[in-house]
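Good morning N.,

You mentioned wanting to compare the apo and holo forms, so I went ahead and generated the holo version with zinc ion. This is what I fed in:
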Amino acid sequence: MTTAGSNLPRRLLAIETSCDETAAAVVDENLRVLSNVVASQTGLHKRFGGVVPEVASRAHVDHILPVIEQALSEAGTRLDDLAAVAVVTHPGLVGSLLVGLTAAKTLALLLDKPLIPVNHIEAHLFACRMHAERDVFPAIGLVVSGGHCNLYDCQGGRAYELLGSTIDDAVGEAFDKVASMLGLSYPGGPSIQKSAESGNRKRFKFPRSFERDRDRLEFSFSGLKTSVLYEIAGKPPRDYDPKTLDPQYVADIAASFQEAAIDVLVTKSRQALAARGRSTLCVGGGVAANARLRERLAAAARDDRFELILAPMAMCTDNAAMSAIAWELLAAGQTAGLDVDVTSGLVRRKPAGK
Ligand code: KG4
Ligand code: ZN
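and this is what came out, ligand included:
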């Protein structure tokens, strides 16, 4: 099928405002990304060491229209050329999600085009599908981000079974908190990764939760975070100024923490692959951008002979291009009316018959 009056493949506009990135992308029906614009708010949240929901939703209001305009202009696409409007409706921060949804509803109404609600977690995994340029399921799916740390059995089509998730903090949140303890900049993931490059990952033995418990496909990072705090500040923790920490000590903690977190992610992925007899692992989310995690997963894939499909770097942290899963939703008739709402939590999708 083509865009009306032309031979071009149809195009959709995707909008993403689930957390602290205002993003819009134009993707055609062959999953070619024509533009992928992300306005990051990290500068605004930096001094708080984490995302402040109220600040995030206000910034989305400021950014949403320029970001959409830029996405359309970079893709050489007029509003009239669009076949549909996709928008992330869950999970995420309600106030933030509402900004994107309101923009998407307005455009869909004005243009009289289908409105397609997208699940943010599913979109993170779809980034792997876009990278592979083919169907990648059945597979084990690992989503590792600032808000989520989930393992799925992706059975094919849109049947996902949640095998386990974190019982406390998401792994990206642990990176952000440990970075703040070390006086490293926000977001913590990239700064821990950078500092760890010159650190000794064996210097500190931090805990690896549930590592030996093969049947427990869950994560916990709060004990790891607390161990790091006790190492830096003593037990009970005393007040300290992160600026006074020795740079080599900081690098060694960063490297040892990163290794502990990654050990758990790699081990649980392997256990999930074995438990479900799958031979493909798909990994998405902001933490999937971590170079050491990518290296360790690649080594595990060679050792255990599974196929590893990582989200491409440009589609690890939040972006709208990965919402191109909307093409599949559109084909399945999964569009929404103007009464569709946002939800903060994860909508668990069980496979048919379970
Ligand atoms: O997927 P994302 O952009 O937002 C959520 O859906 O939560 O993930 C953001 C998270 C942050 O916690 C950030 O510190 C982490 O991803 N992150 C990383 C790296 N780049 C981003 N964590 C580890 N290493 C990285 N290179
Ligand atoms: Zn995300």
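Residues 45 and 300 are 35 Å apart (CA to CA).

Happy to go through it together on a call whenever suits you.

Best,
F.
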